[in-house]
Amino acid sequence: MLLPAKSEVARQLRRYRAWERMMLASPADRAVRAAFEDSGHALCALMGKRCAREAADAAERYLRAGLAAYAEEQRKRPRTATAARRGPPAADRHSPAGSGTPSGAA
User: Fold this and answer.
1) How far apart are CA 88 and CA 93, in angstroms?
2) Which of 20, 64, 80, 91 is deepest in the core (most CB within 10 A)?
């Protein structure tokens, strides 16, 4: 498992928190909101998370814990089950005979 440098994680987390405070102070400012979202995206990419809040939490845990402790924690965390890909519902599937009409259609 590749882990980012702690100095970079700390820098990105400080940037994210600073933009978060600014965004909360002026939520209607589009430039501030865009910068906040950009900082969240960078933190997500750095920490390998999909949600900025999860990335910030992971960054804080990473900075508190030692490198080995964080890696071990990540290995032990249960992975969320992803939904299996499947086709459309049975009512919308075409008949295997190739009639071209969905099953149940006249």
Assistant:
1) 6
2) 20
Take residue 76 and report the two structure tokens written for it.
């032990």
Q: Residue 94 pairs with which residues in a beta bridge? A: 102
**Distance between CA atoms of 106 and 51, rounded to whole angstroms?**
47
Q: What is the pLDDT of residues 7-66, one digit of tens each?
A: 999 999 999 999 999 999 999 999 999 999 999 999 999 999 999 999 999 999 999 986
For 13, the enclosing helix (H) or strand (E) is: helix 6-25
Type of residue at 72: E
Structure tokens belonging to residue 46: 């750095």
Q: DSSP secondary-structure letter at 88? A: S
Predicted TM-score (pTM) of the model is: 0.64
The three-state (H, E, C) secondary structure of 25-73, written as one string = HCCCCHHHHHHHHHHHHHHHHHHCCCCHHHHHHHHHHHHHCCHHHHHHH
- Closest CA relative to residue 1, chosen from 73, 52, 99: 73
Checking if the pLDDT of 80 tops 60, the result is no
